[in-house]
Amino acid sequence: MVRRILALVFALSALAVAQDAKSFLNQGVAAFKNGNLAEAVQSFQKAVDADPAFLPGHLYLATAYMQQYVPGNQTAENRGFADSALREFQSALNLDANNSVATASIASLYLNQKQWDNAQQWYERLTATNPGNADAYYSLGFVAWSRWYPAYSDARKLSGMKPQDPGPLPAGNIKASLKARYTPILEQGMQNLQKALDINPRYDDAMAYMNLLIRERADLMDTPAQYQSEISVANDWVQKALATKKQKAEASQQMPAPPETIQLDEAAQSRRLVTRVSPVVSPDAHVTGTVVLNVLVGKDGHVQQITVKSGTPLLMQASFDAVRQWVYQPTLLNGQPVNVATTVTLTF
């Protein structure tokens, strides 16, 4: 009897812990969708504190940290966001060794930090557990190009070649060293891009990087004829990429409204801004004021829609023209890209 009572007590306690964890998780998701990332982190942390074996809690906590990380920002706070995200994704993998969301997210974090060795290792791990993941193969192709391009650019400069000069590189130690070291990397990069295209034949970004790798590999050729042959193949990839982008644009006009959109406040979303174009107003206009815009950012980070919330009429067109060119780092929710509704305030 005593044993049964103890077993019942333990079972009820475990149930209460699970309910607490799920309750905190739901609070965190609500805060996340409303753009309150700091509040979301607190709730998700409570969820994993209540139940350290609660896999969704670790995944959401890691994602909330990851959303606050801005690539290229070298502040201690920003590095802390990345480190915290990595720690929690690793905790998720300790519970589920083949979790694709955690694996892909760790790979992405290393990629955004330009830690090419780590990024390659984790994308290779992702392809091993999920061989149908075209994005992972594409990312491996991008890593190959990222390793190669700085050395390639330096070699052209050391050889006295201007950016617009046609190849190939002149024969000599510089070319021989570049060829010996990077030919395997180039070949592997192109193989991975081809795998991405085998999985997704409409992967225009993979086509674009295939063009780059082939076009730049042309400088390693021995004769002008071989060089031109490579350039011709690269040009074919450019045309394929352009045609695919056009087809996608035409198809998107007939598609239904995009899926779930989350709300992020201006401060949180501004930290994810990658490309910012400043409004242009004639100095002769002598107009000052503020414009506040409602902005919908697509899953790819590009601005999709803009409406005016408030502001000075004479400044609105300049604001529209600038903000429609802005590009943000894509926002992920549980490993998947989502649309973001936010505001942008411009002061003139």
Low-confidence stretches: 5-17
Gyration radius, in Å: 25 Å
Structural class: alpha+beta
How much of the residues is beta strand, in percent?
Answer: 5-15%
Helix content: 55-70%
* Alpha carbon gap, first and last residue: 77 Å
Largest sheet descriptor? 5 strands, mixed
How many helices? The count is 12
| Order of SSEs | HHHHHHHHHHEHEEEHEEE
**Global geometry:** globular
Q: Would you report the number of β strands?
A: 7
Could you tell me the mean pLDDT?
A: 85
Give short descriptive properties of this protein.
348 residues, alpha+beta, five-stranded mixed β-sheet, two-stranded antiparallel ribbon, 12 helices, 11% strand
Polypeptide structure, described:
The protein has 348 residues and is an alpha+beta fold. Helix content is 63%, strand content 11%. It has helices spanning 2-33, 37-50, 55-68, 76-95, 100-112, 116-129, 134-158, 173-199, 204-217, 224-252, 266-270, 313-323; strands at residues 261-263, 273-275, 290-297, 303-311, 327-328, 331-333, 336-347. Strands 1, 3, 4, 6 and 7 form a five-stranded mixed sheet that branches. β3 and β4 form a beta hairpin. α6 packs antiparallel against α7 and α8 (173-199) packs antiparallel against α9.
Q: In short, what is this structure?
A:
The chain has about 350 residues and is an alpha+beta fold.
